[in-house]
Structures are given as C-alpha cells and as structure tokens.
Amino acid sequence: MKQVNTVLDQFGTTIFTTMSALALEHNAINLGQGFPDQDGPDFIKDAACDAIRQQPNQYPPMAGTTHLRQAVGDHNKRFYGLDSDWQTGVLVTSGATEAIAGALLGLINPGDEVVVIEPVFDCYIPMILRAGGIVRTVRLIPPHWTLSRQALEEAFSERTKLILLNSPQNPAARVYNADELALIAEMVLRYDTYAVCDEVYEHIVFDELEHIPLMSLPGMAERCVRIGSAGKTFSMTGWKVGYINAPPKLHDALCKAHQFLTFTTPPMLQHAVAEGLRLDDDYFRQLSLTQQKKRDILTTGLRRAGFDVLNSQGTYFLCADIRPTGFDGDDVAFCQHITRHAGVTALPLSAFYDLREAASDKKPPPPSHFIRFCFCKKDAVLEEAYEKLIDYFKP
Ligand code: GLN
C-alpha cells in the first residue's frame, strides 16, 4: 500500500497523550499535560448554555461573530493599547493551535525558513514541516532561559519568512522582557520577516512582570499575528476557541487558511467567550495571582523533595532540575520512573527539542536533566503530589 504522509509519520504520539496514558495506567497524579482541574467562571458556561437554547446553532460568519470579534478588539485596546479593526484585523479560530496552523499554511511557501525557540512547544516543528517550511532553532540557555543576540543572529537570514514566538513561553516559563523583544523586533525588521506570536498565556504572568506583545513594539503592528486563547484565559482548555489579531494583509492570508481548515467555530462558545472578555481587570489579575500561588506551593514542595526548581515567570508550568535527586538516568526515564514508583507524572523537557537536529549532529543534544511540572491544579492535589515525591526521595 502507498505511504501515508511521511512528514507527520516521522513523529510519534505527543508526549502529552503518552504521559497522560501512563499516569492513568499507574493511577498517578498527572502534573504532565497542562490543563486546570477546575473550570473557569460559571457565568461563562451559563452564557454558552443560554446561547445554545436562544441563538441559532448554524454556521456563524467565517471570521467569527461580530460580538466576539469586537470583544477581542476591545480587549487588545484595553490591555495593550493595540488598535485593531475588528473587521479587517480580528479572526476567531477553533483553538490557538488552529490559528498557528493557519498562520503557517497561510504565510509560508515551501522552502521558507521559520525560526523557533527551544525548548519549543511540541506542535510547532511538525506543523512548520508539513507546511513545507524549514526549521531554524534558537536555544534558550538554562537555568534562566535567556535569549542571546548571537543565537538569534545565527538563525535569521534572508531566507527567513517568520519567527514563531511563544511568550509567556511553554515549557521554559519565560516571559520575554523588553530587551529581548526589541532584539527580536530588530531581526524581524532587518530581514523583512513576519512574527507569529503565540500569546495564549498572556494573562498568566507572575511577580508583577508585564506581558508585552511583540506587536506593540515600533514597526511590529504591520508584521505580527497575535494569537490568544479562551481556553487558557478562562480555564476551559476543552473549548478550543482562539483569536488572532493581525494587520489586514496577514489577516487575509489567515482567513484563506481558516476557511479551508475549520471554516468557523461553534457559535455558543464564541458568544460566551465574548462575554468573558468583557470581565473587568480584576478577573485577569486574579487569574495570574491564583496561578502564582499554585506555582509557589509546588515550588516549595519540590524543593523539599530535593529538586532544584527553576523560576517560572508565567504559564501553567515550572521546570525542575532532577540531578540533585541522585537519579541515575535521563529526563524521560525519570518521568516514567516517578509515574510508576512515586505516583506523580511530569514531562521530560527533551521532548520539547528538535530531536532530528540533535540526531544529525548539527547541534549538541538537548539537556536531559530538566522536567516540566504543571501546577494549575487544586492546592490539595499539588500538596499530595509533592508529599508523594518527598516520601519517595526523602523517606
Ligand atoms: N498546552 C498543553 C501543555 O503544554 C497541552 C497541549 C496538548 O495536550 N496538546 O501541556
């Protein structure tokens, strides 16, 4: 029989699915895959239920409902001072993942180079390759996961079409600062490229740090696609409602992809998300504060268990260095081991690197001593998880 698509065929099942299945098999507390164990506001759920009953359940407009597109435009103005015309600059997608896929399909031609930053969220590289792009990676340097000018300069060239940027960054939990963003903007302008900015954790930022959209920097509004996520902002990751804002030319290119991918997004969810985006500033502030408290609970507990915990500036995640536990093996073996023997699941950070590149000797192998824990769980669940790790490593 003929081959299936050989680009995707080279990738296995995602680390999220693999480790969630292992957690289930061993009845372990799953701090691997990132999803909250408590849903967001009831009134948003009620709004969706009401919309199902009272509004049409047929195809909404391809680019999104007026109600939600206007709410996205208003949100961008309120939080970042960004002016986006909801008609020519806002598009609703079925999740941020669709927005990213659509941006890659809509913007790159086969052979174009795309810069990504490692450790990198797992779907970026397969999607770039499937869209015909060539991946150029820049590595962040642990333990502070800093972005260096030199690494960026090595990755960008005349062949670069765009950078796919994620801030706050999953899994390194970095929130890029003004200097780093200015450096990226400099490269984007120097090489006349675009930037696709995955900002799904925009409202989960800690320690009074500020999330700055690259799009808000001088010269960037014409070159950036900014992607947000209702799943993250309203703690309903299963809803899969994403939204982009982009200048008209890029917006058009993304609409072309979107109309052939999913065409539209369930209307009752769009209605409810629009209501959510109109919540007052306090809701958004509390989201960060709630997650920050959870980060602190898990950080303290993991330190007691012997881990060297790296600082998490935002997202649902923190990274930990496993070496101080004395474990004899790499991050993959470690995550399987603690799932089986300590009853807690985390993810190996090496899963977030371009392993094809490491295998081809083009770059040194990725670090194999970091793991990622997800902390958007009930406080009691986090406490139970770290107590299990303390019992296992420090009996
Ligand atoms: N974004 C989530 C994470 O990083 C999960 C994504 C997924 O399961 N595809 O854990």
What are the key terms here?
binds glutamine, Aspartate Aminotransferase, domain 2, 4-stranded antiparallel beta sheet, alpha/beta, 2 domains, 13 strands, Aspartate Aminotransferase, domain 1, 395 residues, 43% helix, 7-stranded mixed beta sheet
Structure description:
This protein has 395 residues and is α/β, with parallel strands linked by helices. The protein folds into two domains: 146 residues, Alpha-Beta Complex (Aspartate Aminotransferase, domain 1), CATH 3.90.1150; 239 residues, 3-Layer(aba) Sandwich (Aspartate Aminotransferase, domain 2). It is 43% helix and 14% strand. A seven-stranded mixed sheet has the order 2-8-7-6-5-3-4, sandwiched between helices. It has a four-stranded antiparallel sheet with strand order 9-10-13-12. Strand 9 and strand 10 form a beta hairpin. Helix 6 crosses helix 11. The protein is globular, with a radius of gyration of 21 Å. Glutamine (GLN) binds next to loops.
